[in-house]
Amino acid sequence: MNQFVSRIRIVLSAVALIFGFSVLGSATVSAHETRVVLTDYSFVVGFVNEPAISGDTNGIFIEVTKADVPVEGLADTLQSRVIFGD
Q1: How far is the C-alpha of 82 from the C-alpha of 79, rounded, in Å?
Q2: Is the separation of the CB atoms in 52 and 58 below 8 Å?
Q3: DSSP labels for 4-15?
């Protein structure tokens, strides 16, 4: 009887692990961050290539919207800076 219970526990544990990995593996992850500024504008900021990997070429992604409408023409005036490390 003890062997039967042990095998049932192993099978149930395996099923739980497979289910857990399938749920976690299908989740979409984004490192983009959204901030509301001046109650009208929303900024979404992140890296172009995520996850950001040290030593790889990357860029900054910025999206500005006002009342869910994209704000156009900011490329010449908007400035950004990526700071990392000390």
Answers
A1: 11
A2: yes
A3: HHHHHHHHHHHH
SS3 21: helix
Q: Who's near 33: CB < 8 A, 6+ residues apart?
A: 44, 45, 46
Output the CA angle 39-45-50, nearest 5 degrees: 155
Give 34-63 pLDDT, tens digit per residue. Answer: 877 777 888 888 888 888 888 888 888 888
Pairing type for strands 41-47 and 69-70 reads: unpaired
Over residues 12-40, mean pLDDT: 61
When computed from its CA atoms, the radius of gyration of the chain, rounded to whole angstroms, is: 23
- Give me the residues paired with residue 63 across strands: 44
Is-contact 33 46, C-beta < 8 A?
yes
Task: Find out whether 30 and 49 touch, Cβ atoms under 8 Å.
Answer: no
Beta bridge partners of 46: 61
For tokens 């009208």, the residue is 40
